[in-house]
Amino acid sequence: MGDQQAVARVLLTRRxxxxxxxxxxxxxxxxxxxxLVLVTLLSTRIRAxxxxxxxxxxxxxxxxxxxxxxAASWQxxxxxxxxxxYRRYDERTATMxxxxxxxCLERWHGDLRRLHREAAGDPAGLRRLxxxxxxxxxxxxxxxxxxxxxxxPELRPYADRRAVAGAKRLGLPAATDRLARLVDxxxxxxxxxxxxxxxxxxxxxxxxxxxxxxx
Length: 215
Fold this sequence. Notes:
about 220 residues, mainly alpha, about 65% helix
């Protein structure tokens, strides 16, 4: 357990994908919508770092709320995605972002806390509602729930299959309840995000081991 906790402490020094995209996550409409935008970008077959860069460009252009995203022209969204080098799927994604913003405004009045209340905080219900957004499938819904558990505490501990795969690579428990015992409850979302990086090969088990040894 001691060695596993040392690994967990190293993982907690890594930034989440939301943080990398410049999102200060909070239970407020704008950051929750920004997380949805990031999830939409991460849901395509493209490297996570490209998706993060594209999200930063969209936010830098001022598209931080569903109203601003819908008000932007399709070409303006394409151009922002291009500046983030999100090119293979830029046209289709620009359309999905516009459609998703309209859905968010029309069904939840631009406030994903209403979606949260509609599902009564139930993970299965949240996953189902999130997949109503164009481009967001079950994997994308998992990304959203994995990151948002930081501010929606009733979801904790939430580990999707990629987080579990990362845990296995590092010799950490695959059972979510046992994995959660390695960190404080509030830190589990950060741990899960770091485990996904390992699962995706962004950081190897060897790199983590060397970081543990250096502490």
